[in-house]
Design brief:
Order of helices and strands: EEEEEHEE
Distance between the termini: 31 Å
Number of strands: 7
Radius of gyration: 12 Å
Strand order of the largest sheet: 3-2-1-6-7-4-5
Structural class: mainly beta
Largest sheet: 7 strands, mixed
Number of helices: 1
Strand content: over 45%
Helix content: under 10%
């Protein structure tokens, strides 16, 4: 896997523990890993409560559960590792 850096907007999907993809509107997939330092912010699907107006910190387990069905998010990567995963609040 290429160690990419940048920001992706799309659907986050689960691949394996600590390994995900983010797919953009053209269905281009970018694989990435999470780390213990990844800042995961949920705004409804990840945390299960869409009533809140602001994203709140979530766990890797919560991200994994949501990503198995796909979750819309903005993902910032540095060298192939997610720095932040911010669920898009619809």
């Amino acid at each position: 896997m290429k160690k990419v850096t940048g920001i992706w907007f799309g659907t986050v999907s689960y691949m394996a523990p600590g390994k995900y993809t983010v797919s953009d509107l053209q269905d281009t997939e970018q694989q990435f890993f999470t780390s213990t330092d990844t800042d995961i912010q949920g705004a409804g699907k990840i945390c299960g409560d869409a009533a809140g107006q602001a994203a709140i910190p979530r766990s890797e387990d919560e991200l994994e559960a949501a990503a198995k069905d796909g979750v819309s998010a903005t993902v910032e990567l540095k060298n192939g590792i997610a720095v932040t995963i911010d669920e898009n609040h619809n």
